[in-house]
Structures are given as structure tokens and as C-alpha cells.
Design brief:
The structure is a homodimer of 197-residue chains.
Chain A lengths: L2 H29 L6 H8 L6 H4 L3 H20 L8 H15 L1 H9 L9 H21 L5 H24 L7 H19 L1
Helix pairs in contact in A: 1-2, 1-4, 1-6, 4-6, 4-7, 5-6, 5-8, 5-9, 7-8, 8-9
Chain lengths: 197, 197
């Protein structure tokens, strides 16, 4: 095949991938990972079921592509604020707001488990950029902290906030009105900040 | 029916419930909620499929009975230590150890969602007792704090620790060696304690 013939095949595959991600994204937005059915996605994208597996290595890759769009949305939601002293609390509040507004696709970020495979590099890079938003205010609080330790601290703080948002929104431990959850999360981050100083 | 005739029927139902909880517990221990199939549980308990629904209101009630046993295990694992200054860190470390050792049944505590129903009172009471373990050291740190605020703080701190354990064990955000997770969790709780003082 000549280069000229290859190009359209590549472009067609790229278009097919986009259509499949669109269809999968719509399903996840509606009902989370449980709503993601290969047959319906193929139908939505107007292709045969088997075409999914010519466009993607496996369903995991397709899910990660949807989750990558969610990461981009989340990053946009978090990256709007200024860099004042309440930056960590603002990030926490924005994270909670995003989880509330986009519950099914937010949950899909965490419900998906890669069986025996490390996260692909392109996905890990997007995650890194997201955590960078947390590292910046942490660095202002801990100017002496080495970069690797800051990286780890940002992920730990994210995980803690995530736990509060997750169990709070599900009301797993007790009935939790929205305003109480907002206040608890904010107080928690403020306490943590005081401890860092 | 006379009282005398009723008793054996009650006792038989109680025994059937125990056998069904045993069978469900074994399944959850092996593979979490995903391994819990009504047909296999009935087989394991030596009863007809329909008998599950004479012994329990629904599968949710059966799952909560298994989760109640997990809460009791967890409470036993957490309640072993003394009341020194590192009590919160010790509780965090024990929680992480339990989650590592009993991953499928620990996950089942959180994966199960009650559809549109509040948690039954007997389950909420066991949860309360578990959080009491956290409230005691928090109260020593915050002797002035009103009881309701302490209650909420204990649940928030639990949720934060849970998030760190959950995302750390799943290595969702980055590869996390066991020793790094131990150290991050401990440092996190120490920072939070400093912030409370």
C-alpha cells in the first residue's frame, strides 16, 4: 500500500475511535460503567460489534479514553480559581461540586479497574497534570519539601478528600445533608493546612 | 397455632438465617459482592432458592448481615490497642492492615448500596460503636468539642483515612509500595492531629 492509501485508513480509524468514545461517553454519563455495553456502543457509533476491537485494544482502553475526557472536565472545573490562601479549600469544594454534578462519570474514574496492567503513560500524564493543581498550593505551604515528597503528599491529600466526598455523597456512614458535607470537608482541609504549617 | 408450636418454627427460621449468612459470608470472603449469587447461597445453605426470601426481607438484608459480621471483625481488629498519644495513628494502621488482609469483605462494606432505603437501626448502631473508637481519641484532643461535632469529625476523619487506604491499595493514582502507603497514612494522620491541637 502506498502512503497515500494508508492515510485515509488511518483517518477512518481515528474517526471510528472518536465515534466510539462519543457513544461510550454518553452511556457512562447516563449510568456509569454499568451502562457501558459493547453492543449498544457499536450501535451508537454505527459500526459492527467487532469494529470496537479494531479501533481499541480492548474495552479497558475505550473506558480509559472516556475517563480521560472526564479528567479533562474535572481539570477545567478545578483550574478556575486564584492562588490565594484558601486554595486547597477551594479545590476541595470544586471537587465536591464536580462529583455532585457529574456523579456517574466521576464514579467511573474510580470504579474501573485495570486487570493486571499498569495505567498507560498517556493517562498517567493527565492524572499528573490534575495533581499538579494540588501540588502548587502545597508547595507554597511547604516551600522546603522535596518534589517527590510533595508529589506523594498531593496524592494522599487528594485520596483523603476523595474519601470524604465518596462516603459523604453516598451517605454510607450517616445521613449527610449537602450543607453539612460542604462544611465538614472545608473544616477538614483547614485542619490539615494548620497541621502542615 | 399455640405458643409451643410457634417456637420451633421461629428456631428453624433462625437456624436457616444463620446457615444462609454463613454461605453468603463464605462467598463474600472469597470474591466480594460479585461472588454473591442467590442460587449458590441456597445450595450452600441446603435450602430452596425461595427460602432465602422467607428468611430475609430481600438480598440487601442478607448482605447487611454479612457486613455486620465484617464490622464486628473490624471492630475487634481496631479495639486492641491502648489509649496513648498515637491512638489515631494506630487506628489508621490497623484499618489499613484489616483492609489488606480481608480485601473482598472489606470492599463489600462499601460496594453495597441500599436502594432508596435508610440503613436499618441495628446496622447503624454497630457502625456507631465502630466510630466510637475514633471519637474517644478525638475527644482527648478536643475536650471542649460538643458531642455532635465530635461525631461528625470522627466520620469525616474515617472517610479521609478510608480514601487513602482505598486509592492506595488499588494503586489508582500511582504505583504505591506497601511501606510507602503505611508511611503516607501515618504522616497524614499526624499532620491532621497537629492541626487539631
Amino acid at each position: 500500500m502506498t502512503e497515500k492509501q494508508l492515510q485515509p485508513a488511518k483517518a477512518r480509524r481515528a474517526q471510528l475511535r472518536e465515534r466510539l468514545i462519543d457513544a461510550a461517553e454518553a452511556a457512562v454519563e447516563r449510568g456509569g460503567l454499568a451502562a457501558l455495553k459493547a453492543r449498544e456502543i457499536a450501535l451508537g457509533a454505527g459500526c459492527a460489534l467487532g469494529a470496537i476491537y479494531t479501533a481499541f485494544e480492548d474495552l479497558d482502553e475505550l473506558i480509559l479514553c472516556v475517563n480521560q475526557r472526564t479528567l479533562a472536565q474535572l481539570e477545567k472545573a478545578l483550574a478556575t480559581g486564584g492562588a490565594d490562601g484558601d486554595e486547597l479549600r477551594r479545590l476541595g469544594a470544586e471537587y465536591l461540586a464536580y462529583a455532585r454534578a457529574e456523579a456517574p462519570r466521576w464514579r467511573a474514574l474510580f470504579e474501573h479497574r485495570m486487570p493486571e496492567k499498569p495505567l498507560p503513560e498517556w493517562y498517567a500524564r493527565d492524572l499528573d497534570r490534575l495533581f499538579g493543581l494540588l501540588e502548587a498550593p502545597l508547595q507554597r505551604l511547604l516551600p522546603e519539601e522535596p518534589a517527590e515528597a510533595l508529589r506523594a503528599k498531593a496524592r494522599t491529600l487528594f485520596s483523603a478528600v476523595h474519601g470524604i466526598v465518596l462516603l459523604g455523597l453516598e451517605e454510607k456512614l450517616q445521613p449527610t445533608p449537602a450543607s453539612a458535607l460542604d462544611a465538614e470537608l472545608s473544616a477538614f482541609i483547614a485542619t490539615f493546612e494548620r497541621g502542615l504549617r
